[in-house]
Amino acid sequence: MMRGMAARARNILLITSDQQHWNTLGCLNGEIRTPNLDRLAAQGTLFTRAYCPNPTCTPTRASIITGKYPSQHGAWSLGTKLLEAEHTVGEDLQAAGVRTALVGKAHFQPLAGTPEFASLEAYPALQDLDFWRRFHGPFYGFEHVELARNHTDEAHVGQHYALWMEEQGLANWRDYFRPPTGTNDRQQRSWEIPEQHHYGTWIAERSCDLLDGYAGRGERFFLWASFFDPHPKYLVPEPWDLMYDPVAVTVPAMVPGEHDANPPHFQLTQTPDPDFSPWRESGRGLHGLTSHLHDREELARDIACYYGMISLMDRQVGRILDRLEALGLAEDTLVVFTSDHGHLFGQHGLTAKGPFHYEDLVRVPLIVAQPGRVPAGRRSPALQSLVDFAPSFLAAAGISAPASMTGLDQTNVWYGHGEILRDHVLVENRHEPTTIHLRTYIDERYKLTVYYRRDYGELFDLAEDPHEVRNLWDVPAARELKNCLIRKLLDAELGREPLPMPRIAGA
Q1: Contact by Cβ (8 Å): 327, 215
Q2: pLDDT of 471-484, one tens digit each?
Q3: What is the pTM of this model?
Q4: Rounded CA gap, 150 and 133, in Å?
Q5: How many Cα atoms sit within 13 Å of 295 on the Cβ side?
Q6: What span, in angstroms and rounded, lies between the C-alpha atoms of 465 and 316?
Q7: Distances 318 to 37, 222, 326 between C-alpha atoms, Å
Q8: Cα dihedral across residues 466, 470, 474, 475: positive or negative
């Protein structure tokens, strides 16, 4: 890959959380404390309209490194694999002499591999510690990786995280990770593992060690510190489990009647024993299609724990940022913080994630910082998509992006030389070939969601209805608007110029 422009950043540090609601930053939400992420936001620009290309892990994470939408790179759902033949941003950076590393969660491959599509992130390789002692890459454009796959105390623990715990003298590390018992363990929110052996500590420590090495050798780098929290289960070590009082947190709730105009699977989530068999085509699990009924007090405890998980992660993020500054690398390093997708904790009566494209699930936190280069203390409403990361990282490094990347170079917006690049973002979601297959078009004001082979859909006016409780899909006064947005969605899919936008009359 040839250089095509002057580099704005010698290095790139990408820090991600997993399944973090966009407003769970202290600088946006007074109920949570994230001093280190707040400091990063004060040093740089906080983008308030950033979106994932798909509200699940594998598709979005594959989009981050390929610059393509899931429908283009092929890892379109959980349980799919990003093929090794897909071109990634790390390959272009390495060709320009940049060292590349990933520490933490990858999730480019499924937990269950097949003879045709083998997976290093699956059993039995997942827990073959002799293999992971030898293997550190290459892996999807990263020459060096240190990986884990479990969330909190899941039995999927293994890979480099398990080796690190052994190196730290935690010989009984297996005692802190358990297979599912089949019983409801939601009452348990305190994880017995000591904080010094938590995977957040591991990610911070290993990321700092890599920074030390790059600085000592005078090497350019692209480092992805990929945290696992606050993805459920809701578990966090002491004292973070008691950091927030469940009585003091805001507990979102469904507005009565809000699902009356929504597609039928929304209403079914609010029943005790829903039958989703008409949506089941492939025999796979229908992720998120279950009963979402919950006890309010239990949910308050979940939210308090969720906040504690974020605050613990914030402490580890602070360790990495402190090391970057101590090594004198901050001014030459573009730092980007985001999450792979959002999270539902009671909004619209829903929890966790699923085939719902509410802002809570598709919108993500995004902070971009580089002292003296990225405007400090700014908040920008410019639309952003995580599919833009790969071409933007290349541009920041002074490298021309390949034509195969669908994402846009956002560096002019990031560095304050342009206010708006995108007039829309696209979000895909495909859990099943036809029954759970949806596309969403979002612009400055409106959001449209269409479903494959279905007459129903969603249309929200985000200016007049920011909490998305009034679906305008079947409102007669919004018919012209809906038709125009459908054309704009088709134009966006086909790469054509957008059409003029009418306003709602009397909706």
Answers
A1: yes
A2: 999 999 999 999 99
A3: 0.95
A4: 18
A5: 7
A6: 37
A7: 8, 18, 12
A8: negative
